[in-house]
Backbone:
């Protein structure tokens, strides 16, 4: 009985102890959970270090209208080396001689590796590389730079070298990948394609061209991951949120890189040797759609002698008095308003003086009176010889009491406002304002009639002439056809109409007749014998100096020479404008000179190469036969390479692989590669075409 009481007492005591311990633990947990504040130093010491890292998406490509890459992102690799690998491992070996032997063996591999580095990278000698690595090992360098921005082919070669062919914790190889922007066609259309400067740049305008305007589309969406420090290095923290980066989308442009090349080449050929030329531009546009097929913008590079680079976009950002190309505006207004019934109507020459104005005498009229011994001139002939008198007389005589209507006509032609365009920086034209309740004075009205007292960009002038080629339908110029992802169209962009009809079809046809006279008999006779008929107009104007005058104290002028037109005149397919700008000079640079000659070269090339001008082969009843025993000589000197397999790839990957392998890739359809020709593993000459079908 006594023993039973003792056991009960012990159990009761144990129960009380356990109960108190439980209450103590519960109390401690509550305290830690709600009231405990650890020492800040201790908290930092025991908490794993976490850092958030931005994941960069792969920037989208910019491609031309036929799928050729104009701008692309491709991976490059930076190579570093941890020079301290296995050093502690060798030092911990119990046998000192064994440790020295292992270290010597490692350094021997390093020497052989350095000889390979010198052969592959060709930046330093093997001895120099070995000295770097040996010094880094002695000083404990864990991130020694070896090479920057090498391609995967080079990386594969480096992985075959001693040490680098071992695991990173034995050989020390550290490879980091990042993407860089590449422009396969170099300086062609460089200002149009553009670029994006780093935000830290001290230049105000960091977003240029298509790269800048569509940066959000091309860039994609940044991702985010969290990293933490572990005993064996920095690892991803799976307890934290992870946001995957979304790669940028592609831009399909209207640019045809072949036409861009010939336009660039033709313009450079004309201006490269001329020290007076400050800059030039050329724009080629599809009449029916407004798609810009080539846009060349050249500016003299002050840092390099006789060098022109794509620095400034003159075509959209440089406005100036257009000169005689604006005479077409005056003529069209008079035709459309019914003031002129026929181009064959005549007016008195009046020795070239416009009555009721203070405009200068038109010397062309004085020459006309002398050469043809007459005191009359037709509107047709006046336009052909680019007479200021004839066109300013038309403006003054017909609109002196309706100047507001005349200015409104200019706006209806799209020459008074800027329009939405695929590049930033399109300048707004300058048009005289009509005073409220009054009319423009006759002198200002007359000067507008022949292209002064106004300012226009080359693109505005081209858009107007393109509308004449389109029988009055004014298309909006554009550069971006679509936004795509892996060959699939996400957003269709493209053609738009600025004005469904700026004039009647009859008026457009009459203007075309006048423009053909300019190229066949007038100031643009350089184009008379072009390989197809061209209709267009030349223009020459002068830039003003700081004193507001058109020439400096030495009598020098700053010229703007321009030609604008379309071809073939009887069935317009393309419109074109070419403009050159001179430094102050006493030489003359007029629209009928360099601009007309450049356009002639572009036109002749297009007639020789573009499908519109290539007729079908004539059918024949017989097939040529080769005589028996005769061997046809075949040029087999070109190197042949194996065609890569593109099946199953998205468009971006297929284009990248094909062009990196040395082929030109053309495609049709959307989706992934379903069929290719030639087939994979066949051989073909480098530079030949691979056709792919997407489904």
Residues:
């Amino acid at each position: 009985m006594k023993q039973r009481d003792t056991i009960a007492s012990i159990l009761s005591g144990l129960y009380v102890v356990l109960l108190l311990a439980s209450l103590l633990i519960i109390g401690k947990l509550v305290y830690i959970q709600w009231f405990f504040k650890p020492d800040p130093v201790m908290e930092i010491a025991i908490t794993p270090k976490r850092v958030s890292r931005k994941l960069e998406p792969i920037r989208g490509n910019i491609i031309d209208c036929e799928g050729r890459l104009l701008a692309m992102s491709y991976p490059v690799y930076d190579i570093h080396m941890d020079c301290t690998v296995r050093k502690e491992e060798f030092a911990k070996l119990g046998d000192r001689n064994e440790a020295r032997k292992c270290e010597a063996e490692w350094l021997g591999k390093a020497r052989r590796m350095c000889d390979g580095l010198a052969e592959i990278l060709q930046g330093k000698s093997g001895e120099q590389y070995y000295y770097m690595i040996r010094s880094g090992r002695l000083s404990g360098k864990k991130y020694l730079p070896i090479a920057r921005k090498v391609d995967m082919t080079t990386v594969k070669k480096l992985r075959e070298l001693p040490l680098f062919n071992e695991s990173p914790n034995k050989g020390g190889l550290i490879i980091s990948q990042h993407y860089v922007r590449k422009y396969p066609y170099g300086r062609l259309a460089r200002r149009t394609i553009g670029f994006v400067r780093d935000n830290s740049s001290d230049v105000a305008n960091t977003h240029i061209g298509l790269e800048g305007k569509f940066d959000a589309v091309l860039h994609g969406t940044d991702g985010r991951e969290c990293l933490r420090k572990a005993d064996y290095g920095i690892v991803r923290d799976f307890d934290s949120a992870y946001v995957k980066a979304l790669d940028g989308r592609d831009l399909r442009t209207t640019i045809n890189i072949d036409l861009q090349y010939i336009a660039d080449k033709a313009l450079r050929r004309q201006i490269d040797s001329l020290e007076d030329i400050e800059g030039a531009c050329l724009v080629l546009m599809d009449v029916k759609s407004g798609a810009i097929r080539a846009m060349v913008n050249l500016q003299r590079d002050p840092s390099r002698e006789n060098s022109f680079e794509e620095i400034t976009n003159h075509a959209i950002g440089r406005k100036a008095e257009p000169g005689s190309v604006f005479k077409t505006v005056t003529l069209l207004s008079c035709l459309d308003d019914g003031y002129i019934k026929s181009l064959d109507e005549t007016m008195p020459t009046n020795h070239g003086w416009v009555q009721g104005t203070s405009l200068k005498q038109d010397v062309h009229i004085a020459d006309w009176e002398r050469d043809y011994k007459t005191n009359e001139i037709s509107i047709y002939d006046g336009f052909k010889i680019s007479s200021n008198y004839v066109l300013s007389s038309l403006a003054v005589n017909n609109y002196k009491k309706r100047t507001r209507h005349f200015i409104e006509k200019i706006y209806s032609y799209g020459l008074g406002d800027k329009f939405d365009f695929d590049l930033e920086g399109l300048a707004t034209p300058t048009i005289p304002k009509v005073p409220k309740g009054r009319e423009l004075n006759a002198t200002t009205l007359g000067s507008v009639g022949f292209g002064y007292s106004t300012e226009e960009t080359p693109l505005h002038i081209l858009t107007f002439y393109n509308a004449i080629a389109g029988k009055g339908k004014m298309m909006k110029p554009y550069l971006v056809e679509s936004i795509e992802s892996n060959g699939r169209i996400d957003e269709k962009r493209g053609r738009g109409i600025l004005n469904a009809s700026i004039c009647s079809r009859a008026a457009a046809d009459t203007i075309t007749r006048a423009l053909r006279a300019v190229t066949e008999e007038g100031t643009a006779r350089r184009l008379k014998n072009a390989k197809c008929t061209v209709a267009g107009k030349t223009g020459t104007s002068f830039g003003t100096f700081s004193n507001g005058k058109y020439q400096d104290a030495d009598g020098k002028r700053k010229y703007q020479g321009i030609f604008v037109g379309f071809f073939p005149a009887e069935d317009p397919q393309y419109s074109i404008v070419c403009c050159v700008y001179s430094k102050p000079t006493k030489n003359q640079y007029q629209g009928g000179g360099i601009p007309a000659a450049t356009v002639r070269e572009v036109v002749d090339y297009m007639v020789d190469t573009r499908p519109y001008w290539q007729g079908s082969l004539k059918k024949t009843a017989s097939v040529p036969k080769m005589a028996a025993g005769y061997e046809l000589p075949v040029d087999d000197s070109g190197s042949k390479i194996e065609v890569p397999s593109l099946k199953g790839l998205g468009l971006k990957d297929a284009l990248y692989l094909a062009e990196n392998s040395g082929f030109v890739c053309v495609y049709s359809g959307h989706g992934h590669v379903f069929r290719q020709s030639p087939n994979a593993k066949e051989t073909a000459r480098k530079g030949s075409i691979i056709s792919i079908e997407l489904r």
About this structure: The first strand starts at residue 50 and ends at 55. Residues 616-637 have pLDDT under 50 and may be disordered. The CA atoms of residues 91 and 99 lie 6 Å apart. The chain has four domains: 2-36, 73-182, 259-609, 640-694.
